[in-house]
Amino acid sequence: MHHFFVDPAQVMGDFIRITGPDVNHMKNALRMKQGEEVLVSDGTGTDYHCCLSSLNSDCVEARIVSADRDGRELPSRIWLFQGLPKSDKMELIIQKAVELGVGEIIPVLTRRCVSRPDPKSFEKKRVRLARIAAEAAKQSGRGRIPQVREMMDLRPALEEMAARPGAMLFYERS
Q1: Could you give the 3-state DSSP secondary structure of residue 31?
Q2: Tens digit of pLDDT for each residue in 115-160?
Q3: 3-state DSSP call for residue 56?
Q4: Is residue 132 helix, strand or coil?
Q5: Which of 85, 100, 105, 124 could in theory staple to 89 by disulfide, Cβ–Cβ 3.0 to 4.6 A?
Q6: What is the pTM of this model?
Q7: Beta carbons of 42 and 17 less than 8 angstroms apart
Q8: Which uninterrupted H or E stretch holds 41?
Q9: pLDDT, tens digit, for every residue of 6-62?
Q10: 11: which strand partners?
């Protein structure tokens, strides 16, 4: 069953309105038809099993058959504070972390990072990384799209990490 994410405001009573790039994907790539079943998540943990009722050029409407709350997420929340790796390795790290159940990803700039983007150029990359997280969430059947936060220096990252319950820091020489 195909899985899509919508904003909670698009859930209207017994119907869900799907807009944006997913409409083109549903109509042209997947060639979905009226009556097909889809899984729609609102990003807050509610999953809706739906039946497509109409496919228009700018939106798709789906009738809600049933709703499940928090059935696809881990019972505990995991934050990944990830040092910036070389080249495009961060994309693979984000994809696999989302597939494994990480709830939030915080890129960390450390003293020994080879990749040292400035905050303005990293913001463009963060948008791409957020898209990768969304695709991985769809692929792995997650009920929420993990957030990819802004880049953070090591000291504030350690302070935030210390405030989290059960924080673990993995280091190869410890």
Answers
A1: coil
A2: 888 888 899 999 999 999 999 998 888 888 999 999 999 999 999 9
A3: coil
A4: helix
A5: 85
A6: 0.81
A7: no
A8: strand 37-41
A9: 998 889 989 999 998 899 999 989 999 999 999 999 888 889 999 999 999 899 999
A10: 16
